[in-house]
Write a structure and sequence with these properties.
The protein is α/β, with parallel strands linked by helices. The chain is globular. The chain contains nine helices and 14 strands. A hairpin with a 5-residue loop joins strand 10 and strand 11 (252-256). The chain binds iron/sulfur cluster.
């Protein structure tokens, strides 16, 4: 029986939100340059020795497991550019108490790494796919590579992952022609697709609310083509997505609407950046330095205390569209989504 100590109680904030999910960025580097995330040129990446080592990440995760954080998502930049990522996946997969382990990737390196990640114990993959058109892919990413992403998806489908989801960022004035083809592709591939609204986390700070193609608009576009969508009840009340199924049996589709329909009231997510800074929100303007503590040999109790302070300071919501919204210093690639 667990001794009821401070360390074992959950990470609950002032609004009673219990934090059970940690997004772990393992690098700020990426092999493409999506304009809704990174600058095109002259990106200053973190020096290698400023990044948490796999051992430090595992230390932090072990401490978090003691306070009820048991769902982990590996992000970046692009996590597959971090060397030996399957080693980290293996260590996390073997850790008692890890209930869920997933990776979000742009898919470019999946053809080479899908099998190794699966063999290391990874069960769930989210693959970014905003378009099926080369030209739009180049416009968004400022790089080539759509064929590699599609190869990566095809190869991942042969690797027996429990779940493969496609994530698409939809942007007004750019993505309208991709929405239905992406829906059709996901139906044909029997893959779940989720559209994510464009958020003010682009490094060029060009985001405007007019550029947001809302979940409601996307749903209308898809229903016009594929018929009515039927809501699917949530299995996890904290999940950000609103899921639907095609009534013609064509699978499931979801919408993550942080701008038009924020879901902060049920947020259970924390983040740690590649340099070991803990964030209580994607849009947090404050950070708690776990790396310094890890490198000073802090105990689990001290790390937990730091994260408790971070959670205690969590704002009720991101505030986008209200007078309160303050853009974080970091862009998406420096946080990890
Ligand atoms: S914006 Fe922040 S509080 Fe809201 S759901 Fe996202 S991480 Fe949670």
């Amino acid at each position: 029986m667990h001794k009821h100590t401070v360390a074992n109680t959950q990470l609950t904030d002032r609004l009673g939100r219990i934090h059970t999910s940690l997004r772990i960025s393992v690098t700020d580097r990426c092999n493409i340059r999506c304009f809704y995330c990174m600058p095109e040129k002259d990106v200053e990446f973190c020096p290698r020795d400023e990044l948490l080592t796999f051992e430090e990440i595992c230390r932090f995760v072990r401490a978090m497991l003691q306070v009820g954080v048991n769902k982990f998502r590996i992000t970046g930049g692009e996590p597959l550019v971090r060397a030996d990522l399957p080693d980290l996946i293996k260590q996390l997969h073997q850790m008692p108490g890890v209930a869920d382990l997933a990776v979000t990737t742009n898919g470019i390196l999946l053809p080479d790494q899908a099998a190794a990640l699966r063999a290391a114990g990874l069960r769930r993959l989210n693959i970014s796919l905003d378009t099926l058109r080369e030209e739009t892919f180049r416009k968004i990413t400022r790089r080539e590579g759509l064929d590699r992403v599609l190869d990566g998806i095809a190869i991942a489908q042969t690797c027996d992952f429990e779940k493969i989801r496609l994530n698409a960022i939809a942007i007004r004035g750019l993505s309208e022609h991709d929405v239905v083809p992406l829906g059709r592709f996901a139906r044909e591939q029997n893959l779940e697709l989720r559209f994510i609204e464009f958020m003010p986390l682009d490094a060029d700070t060009a985001w405007q609310s007019e550029n947001v193609l809302t979940g409601a608009t996307l749903r209308q576009m898809l229903e016009a083509e594929f018929g009515p969508l039927e809501p699917v009840s949530r299995t996890d009340p904290a999940q950000p997505a609103i899921d639907y199924r095609f009534t013609d049996g064509g699978g499931r589709i979801g919408f993550i609407n942080p701008v038009s329909s924020p879901f902060c009231s049920t947020c259970n997510r924390l983040r740690i950046t590649a340099e070991g800074q803990v964030r209580n929100c994607l849009f947090s303007t404050a950070e708690w330095d776990a790396r310094a503590m890890l490198r000073q040999g802090a105990s689990d109790k001290e790390l937990i205390h730091l994260v408790r302070e971070c959670v205690a300071a969590k704002a009720p919501a991101h505030g986008i569209g209200t007078g309160e919204f303050v853009r974080p210093q970091r862009a998406m690639y420096q946080i990890g989504g």
